[in-house]
Design brief:
The protein has one helix and five strands; from the N terminus they run E-E-E-H-E-E. The protein is mainly beta and about 60 residues long. A hairpin with a 3-residue loop joins strand 2 and strand 3. The radius of gyration is 11 Å and the shape is globular. It holds the Pfam family DUF2187.
């Protein structure tokens, strides 16, 4: 399991994407305002995602 780093872009739950703002022991805090269609989705600006539940789309190593 690869753990995201701050600044990475991750995808989770049916294609939602966000920028990692903080890395915790078991999860990351993600800013969803990165998505172009954020306003249409009616979701919170930030969310917590378990490390097992996301894929790194773009990161410092990509």
């Amino acid at each position: 399991m690869t753990i995201a780093e701050v600044g990475n872009i991750v995808e989770f739950k049916d294609g939602l994407q966000g920028v990692v703002e903080k890395v915790n022991e078991n999860s990351v805090i993600v800013d969803l305002t990165y998505m172009e269609n954020f306003d249409e989705l009616e979701v919170e600006e930030k969310t917590v995602i378990n490390h097992k539940r996301y894929t790194i789309i773009h990161g410092s190593g990509n």
